[in-house]
Specification:
Number of strands: 12
Radius of gyration: 57 Å
Largest sheet: 3 strands, antiparallel
Distance between the termini: 128 Å
Strand content: 5-15%
């Protein structure tokens, strides 16, 4: 409230709903700051450009004048409905106080107008609609002049001419201009404001397209490449429809001058005059006040309702004179300049007919836009395109369809298309040689080595070979590439063709490298694997020799060193706890009984009895016997002569004293088979094979002691090849 009282007493106690132009709305919070906090930031920013104290109060009072004009209520006069009168006297008094003028002058300027006919002037009362239109035009004019004044103040505070110390020593200053414009707009209901914004965007797009084309043209010229005629779509036809001699603005101005001009007549005349223009869209379902334009960013349908009224925006001379009396320096100075410009306008020659014309909003907008483009063309332009990723203004979220539409509307798509018309792809000489020499022929690579530090010649040799059979679609008569001074340019499809060949060649090279590396790894690891295999085999054989492996198999009985297991008694308990002597004797007796009964049953088989070898023969064969054979022979004799009722402890002790070591491996593993048969005492086994005489004699001795039949066959070969087939 202190700041409000400092600006104007009428602001104290007011809110946004106190002014019709602002309306009743909820307080906004932007970037975590309220409107009051944002206003304080604005005041601080204005102080940086020397807008403080009286200058700040002048600016704020001008803006308050605009707000107060919106509160003036106009109604028909009670005595004459064709006359307008102000029925909110208190609001009028506040306005007069704020502007520093008399209340009667303000009332007269807002409800009447002066008409000049020759040398005579007449004061004519305005109708209600005319009075409202003049008030709104006055508010717009003040707001526009305040904005222009603010822009000039910022420029004066930042221009070198005003802040540089040694201004007299400088011949010419440079200029850096920042232009912030609205983006392309297309809503469900597009009015006169959207038309003006899109018209400005069309002008900037034309400049942008020309700059892109010129940059491409300059690049080709620097590289020494002949530039063929590049055809690209521009928006010249749209601009001709808007600002041409019989364009939209001219027809709209004519309708504003014509008595009883209206929007429907304006649209009808526009479509009739420009019926052959392709960018003007006329559909059957359009209303009488609707028309469409195919802008560079897309089709837009406009509603021409109030186009004529908004374009007229004529400020009466009475309001200009009233503004010149204001005590507000901004309003008085700015609008006095406008009044002087209107007074200096050319008039009709004596005796001639004055040409009826007015300065409409469309005409002013076109004039200002043309002047702006002329100033921009004198500079070196850089473009910054802004994309709004989402409408919620939240981070890390993007609306893809909206973003793509914005890229088209700001001209980024056209900027990409224009350079790709003739040569879509380009690479530097070094990049092209390094990238594609890997699949060139040996002859071409040799030539590249001889042409060192000559990029253009190297590129011609390399690409001349790789692209000799390639022809671009639709450009078969043209060379598939052009080599400039520092870059090589490819026509459509040429670079893709080279990349596909490069991928294929790199795949082959990768396969060869992979093969070599795998072979190296295998050769390097083979000696280690072989050493480990040998060590594993040696360990396995050592364990086998020591009798520590396969304890739960059929060979475990001998390795356990149990005499009872050798004669068929299962002595491997599930528990490590040994059997008692009584149970061991009982098991031994049962096993021997089973063996005895089995041998008795075999007696009934009529078999020939071989002669028992003499002791001389046995002694002669013993030196040639293996140590294990002697042990087998010795233990077999002890076993055959032992009585059935021999104590188990004595037999077990005898067995432990003369225990046979496991047989070493042989080619046909015959010893192992024989040993297994001996261990298990399988009476139902049909065949035993032995390749040692001592083993044969041992079996004969055991079986004959038990009165068992035996058949022997002797081979005519050496003694160690004797084969005995023994049937139990």
């Amino acid at each position: 409230d202190d700041f409000k009282a400092q600006v104007w007493d009428g602001l104290v106690g007011t809110t946004n709903s106190s002014f019709r132009y602002v309306g009743d709305c909820e307080p906004l919070t932007l970037d975590g700051l309220t409107d009051a906090e944002q206003f304080q930031k604005t005041v601080n920013a204005l102080s940086l450009v020397n807008i403080t104290d009286n200058k700040l109060n002048t600016l704020m009072r001008a803006i308050c004048t605009v707000l107060q004009l919106g509160n003036i209520a106009i109604a028909p006069d009670s005595s004459d409905n064709e006359k307008a009168c102000i029925n909110s006297q208190d609001e009028l008094e506040k306005l007069a106080e704020l502007m520093g003028i008399d209340v009667e002058d303000a009332n007269k300027a807002l409800t009447t107008r002066t008409i000049t006919a020759g040398r005579d002037s007449y004061i004519v009362p305005m109708k209600v609609e005319e009075s409202r239109d003049s008030i709104e035009a006055f508010a717009k004019e003040i707001y526009q002049r305040a904005f222009d004044w603010l822009v000039r103040s910022i420029n004066d505070a930042t221009s070198a001419e005003h802040i540089y110390e040694n201004v007299a020593d400088v011949v010419e200053f440079g200029l850096i201009g920042l232009l912030d414009i609205f983006g392309f707009e297309s809503f469900n209901n597009n009015r006169f404001e959207q038309f003006c914004i899109n018209y400005a965007n069309e002008k900037f797009q034309q400049k942008y397209t020309l700059d892109i084309f010129r940059s491409v043209q300059d690049e080709y010229t620097r590289e020494g490449i002949d530039l063929d005629e590049i055809t690209y779509s521009d928006n010249s036809e749209v601009l001709k429809l808007i600002e041409g001699r019989m364009g939209l603005i001219s027809i709209l101005n004519e309708e504003c001058i014509r008595p009883n001009g209206n929007d429907a007549c304006f649209i009808s005349k526009l479509k009739k005059v420009n019926k052959d223009v392709s960018v003007l869209v006329d559909e059957r379902l359009h209303c009488p006040t609707e028309f469409g334009i195919d802008h560079y960013a897309g089709h837009v349908k406009y509603n021409a309702d109030m186009f004529v009224k908004k374009n007229t925006d004529l400020l009466p001379k009475d309001l200009l004179d009233c503004a010149c009396k204001s005590s507000n320096d901004l309003i008085c100075t700015e609008l006095k300049a406008k009044a002087d410009a209107s007074a200096a306008a050319p008039k009709a020659a004596p005796g001639g007919r004055a040409k009826k014309s007015i300065l409409t909003v469309g005409t002013k907008f076109r004039t200002q836009l043309t002047s702006l483009m002329a100033n921009i063309s004198k500079t070196r332009t850089r473009y910054v395109r802004c994309i709004r990723p989402n409408t919620e203004s939240v981070p890390i979220k993007m609306n893809l369809s909206s973003s793509a539409e914005q890229l088209r509307s700001v001209g980024v798509v056209s900027a990409v298309i224009i350079p790709r018309v003739a040569f879509p792809n380009r690479l530097t000489h070094e990049a092209a040689i390094q990238r594609f020499r890997c699949f060139a022929s040996a002859e071409a690579r040799h030539k590249l080595g001889t042409l060192a530090n000559t990029g253009k010649e190297q590129v011609d040799v390399l690409l001349g070979e790789l692209l000799k059979d390639f022809k671009a679609n639709g450009e078969e008569d043209k060379k598939s590439y052009e080599s400039g001074k520092t870059r090589v340019y490819f026509r459509t499809g040429a670079l893709e063709h080279l990349e596909s060949k490069r991928i294929k060649a790199m795949s082959e090279h990768a396969s060869n490298i992979n093969k070599m590396i795998r072979g190296f790894i295998a050769r390097a690891s083979f000696p280690r694997l072989r050493e480990k295999a040998i060590a594993a085999q040696a360990l396995a054989r050592e364990e086998r020799m020591e009798g520590k492996s396969h304890r739960n198999t059929s060979q475990s009985s001998l390795q356990n060193g149990s005499f009872s297991s050798c004669i068929g008694v299962t002595s491997t308990p599930k528990s490590p706890r040994p059997k008692s002597p009584r149970r061991q004797r009982k098991s031994l007796k049962c096993a021997l009984d089973r063996l005895k009964q089995t041998l008795k049953r075999q007696k009934t088989t009529p078999l020939s009895q071989p002669s028992k070898p003499t002791s001389a023969t046995l002694s002669a064969s013993e030196p040639n016997c293996h140590r294990r054979d002697k042990n087998l022979l010795s233990i077999s004799k002890d076993l055959s002569k032992a009585p059935i009722n021999t104590p188990f402890e004595l037999l077990e002790q005898k067995w432990q004293q003369t225990k046979i070591t496991p047989f070493p491996p042989s080619k046909n593993n015959t010893y192992n088979s024989l040993e297994q048969k001996w261990r298990q005492m399988k009476i139902d086994s049909p065949l035993l094979k032995a390749h040692s005489p001592s083993v044969r004699f041992f079996l004969e001795d055991v079986l004959q002691e038990r009165n068992s039949p035996i058949i022997t066959t002797t081979s005519p070969h050496t003694t160690h090849q004797i084969r005995a087939e023994i049937f139990l």
